[in-house]
Design brief:
The complex is a heterodimer of chains A (273) and B (343).
Chain A lengths: L1 E9 L4 E10 L4 E5 L6 H8 L7 E6 L2 E2 L5 H7 E4 L11 H7 L2 H4 L7 H13 L15 H14 L4 E5 L7 H17 L3 E5 L3 H7 L2 E6 L2 E6 L1 H4 L2 H8 L3 E5 L6 E5 L8 H10 L1
Parallel strand pairs in A: 3-8, 3-9, 6-7, 7-8
Antiparallel strand pairs in A: 1-2, 1-4, 4-5, 9-10, 11-12
Helix pairs in contact in A: 3-6, 5-6
Chain B lengths: L5 H24 L7 H12 L8 H35 L12 H14 L8 H21 E2 L2 E2 L1 H25 L3 H10 L8 H20 L1 H7 L3 H6 L4 H23 L5 H13 L3 H25 L8 H19 L7
Antiparallel strand pairs in B: 1-2
Helix pairs in contact in B: 1-3, 1-13, 2-3, 3-8, 3-11, 3-12, 3-13, 4-5, 4-6, 4-7, 4-11, 5-6, 5-11, 8-11, 12-13, 12-14, 13-14
Classes of the chains: A alpha/beta (273), B mainly alpha (343).
Amino acid sequence: MIDVRSVSFRYRKDWVLQDLSFEVKRGEFIGVIGPNGSGKTTLLKILYRLLSPQQGEVLYSREPLKKMSRTEIAKKIAVVTQEAYSLFPFRVIEIVLMGRSPYLGHQLFESERDLTIAKKAMEWTEILPIAERSIDELSGGERKRVFIAKALAQEPEVILLDEPTTNLDIHHQIEFLDLILGLNREKGLTILMATHDINMASEFCDRLILLRQGRIYKMGLPAKVITKETMEQVYGCDLWVDQHPFSGMPRVNLLKKGIREDGTLERDRKGEG
Amino acid sequence: MKILTLKKVLFLSAVLGMVLGLVILLSITMGSVKVKFYSSMMILLRSILGMEGDGTETERAIILSLRVPRVLLAGLVGAGLSVSGATFQALLRNPLADPYILGVSSGAAVGTIVAIWAGLGILSFGLPLASFLGALLTILIVFYFGRQNGKIHPNTLLLAGVITSSFLSALIMFFISISQKEELHTIIFWLMGDFSFSDYRAVRIIFPYLLFGVFFLYLLARQLNLILSGEEYALQSGVNVERLRLLSYLCASLITAASVSVCGLIGFVGLIVPHSVRLIFGPDHRLLLPASALVGASFLIASDTIARTLLAPTELPVGVITAAFGGPFFIYLLKTRKVVKTL
C-alpha cells in the first residue's frame, strides 16, 4: 500500500536518507528502528509529506504522495508524534473532534455524525469517562490515548507513530501497545512505528526496518533483523541477544562494562570464537 | 456531551451583543456636556428614523456629530484589535503577542511623520492614508525578512517584526528630536491612542477593512484551533498551513493597520480581551473570535468614555485607561481563574 522508491533526502548539504526503498502491505505492523540520527523521524515525516524527498518518490496505493492534497493525505494517514502541546489547553472531546478536520472542508462546525465517530474512537481507546476533562489535567498515558482517539477519528488507513512510548512507564507502555496491536489486528489498520525500544518492536511488530546512517541496513522479520552481530555493528556496543522465554522473539540484553568476565557469557563468547 | 455548536455561538454572541448595545447607549449619554438621558435617546431615535430632531441644536450636534461617530469608531477599533490580537497569539504561538507585535504601529507612525513633513497634514484624508500606507509597507518589509526558503517561520517573523519595529521607533524618535514643527509633538500623543478626532469619515475608512478582515478570519477559525498545537500538528490534521498563515497574517495585519491609521496605538486591548474571553469561554476560535470582537468593542467604548469624562473637560489618552483598568483586571483573572499555564 505504501511504496517507497529510492528516496533520498537532505536538509542542507548532507544526505539524511539515502536511496531508501521498501514496501508496506495493507494491515502490516512495521517497526522502524536504528540509532540516534539514523533517519527514523525524517522517514516518517516524508511518509506524510511534512518533508518532500529530493530524489525518489513515495506512492500511496499507487498514487504519488506529492500529487495528493493535504486533506487527502490526512484522510488516509494519521500521525501521532511526541506530545502535541496546545498553547491553550482544549478539552478531550474537542481534541478528538479535531480529527474530523479533513472531512469538514469549509464547514465550521462538526455534525452529529462527526460526534458519533469521535465517540466511537473514544470508546475504543477507553477515554469516554474523561471526555470533558481538559488535556492538561491528564496523565501521560491518558494523553497518549487522547491523541490515538484523535487519529482514529480521522478514519485513516495508516497510523504513523513516532516514539510513542517514551515518557510512559512499563505498565502504560504495554497498555498502549496492546491498544495499537488491537487496532492493527481487529481494525486492519496499517501501523508504522519508529522507536528506540528494540525489544518492544521485536515483540509487537510483524516486520522491522533497521536504519543506519540514513540507509536501510536490514529489513525483515524480527528474528532476521535482531541478531547479536547486526545489533553490535549498528549500535556499536557489546550486546547480548537471546529469546523471549514465552514468545520466542529475539531479545536484546545490555552488557555493562566488565560483565564479559562473568562466567556464562565468557564461555559463550569463547564458544563463538 | 457538550460540544460547540453554531447555536451556542449565536446565543452567546447575542447576549454579548446586548451588553455592547447597552454600553453604546450609556456612552452616548455621557460626556463633559450634560445632555439628559431621555433627550439623548430621543435625539438618537429620531435621527435614526429620519425625523425632525429633538433637543437643542447644540445637543443634537454633540450627540450626532461628536459622540455617535466616536463610539462607533471605538467599537470598531476595539473589536478589530481584539480579533487581530487573538489571531496573532495563535499564529505566533505566543500568549504575549499583540496586534502591534509585527511593527505595524511604528510603520504607521513613520508614515504619518513623513506625511506631516511633506505638508500633507493639511489635507483631511492625508494623515490616515499616509499612516495606513506606512503600516502596509512595514508588513511587506517584515514578511520579506521573515521568510526563509519561501516559507514563513513564526519565530523568524517575530524577530523580523521586533527588529523592524525597534528600527522604526528609533527613526520616529530621531524625527521628533530634530523637528521644529509643532505637529510632530502631537505624534507622541497619537502614539498613545486618541479618539478625539473621530468623525464619520474615519468610521467609513476603517469599516470595510475590519469587516472583511474579521469575516475572513472567522472562516479560518477552526483551522486556527489546530495551529495552536503547532504547524506540524495542523498539517497532520489536513490543514494547508502555508495558505492559512498567509491569509490570517494578512487579515490580522490589515485590521491593525486600519485601526492604527485612525486612532493611533491603543495598547492592552488586543492582549487582555482575547485572554479574558479565553479564560471564560475556552480557547476555541469559533467562539473566541466573535466573543472577543463584541467584548473588545464594549471594553474600548467604555474605556474611551471614561477617558473623556473622568477629568472633563480635559481628555486623557484612551491608552492610559485601557492600561490602568486592563492590567489589574487581567492579573485578577490570572490569579482567580484557571491559570494560563503558558504565561
